[in-house]
From TrEMBL:
Keyword Hydrolase: yes
Record EC number: 3.1.2.-
Entry keyword Hydrolase: yes
PROSITE patterns: HOTDOG_ACOT
Keywords from the named record: Hydrolase
GO molecular function, one term: long-chain fatty acyl-CoA hydrolase activity
Protein's recorded name: Acyl-CoA hydrolase
GO CC terms of this entry: cytosol
Length: 135
């Protein structure tokens, strides 16, 4: 994914999630509550992790989280997630969030970047060895 903020969504890649925050997702100042954004990031990151684990995963760590720009009610948010590290049982995912503001004028702003680690778990919620990559 790109570090640039060139008023465009990242090319050649599909977001895991697209969602628009509503007034009920706002904080007391009227901007979108960071905890709501964190929840969406966790969901977006879990999608490639679940596919790689071929089963359930649990979030073990939020390694980093940067709220670089505010998010406003009515922004159209796109969540891009990419696996950056795979261990024995763990999968680390980078998530970038872009907001399309004033959508008729195509203003795109990278608002958030985070790295999270998920652990593949079994039916007893214990860590599970990751399966080999499908060929
Ligand atoms: C996820 C869980 C099953 C893992 O069990 P555990 O006994 O703590 O796991 P381990 O210590 O064996 O570590 C498992 C993997 O996580 C990694 N890990 C552990 N602590 C970590 C940390 N702080 N940051 C990143 N990775 C970490 C380990 O390196 C290991 O990876 P590897 O197997 O690829 O080498 C357990 O911690 C748990 O149930 N946590 C709660 C999960 C949850 O409820 N999440 C939602 C909360 S909102």
């Amino acid at each position: 994914m790109t570090d640039q903020n060139n008023n465009q969504l990242p090319p050649d890649t599909m977001p895991q999630l697209r969602v628009m925050p509503m007034p009920s997702d706002a904080n007391v100042h009227g901007d979108v509550f960071g905890g709501w954004i964190m929840a969406q990031v966790d969901i977006a990151g879990s999608l490639p992790a679940t596919r790689r684990a071929n089963g359930r995963v649990a979030t073990i760590a939020v390694n980093s989280f940067l709220f670089k720009q505010p998010v406003f009610v009515g922004d159209l948010l796109s969540f891009y997630a990419e696996i950056v590290k795979v261990g024995n049982t763990s999968i680390t995912v980078n998530v970038e969030v872009y907001a399309e503001r004033n959508r008729l004028q195509t203003e795109v702003v990278k608002v958030t970047e985070a790295t999270l680690t998920y652990v593949a778990t079994d039916a007893q919620r214990k860590p599970r060895q990751l399966p080999p990559l499908a060929s």
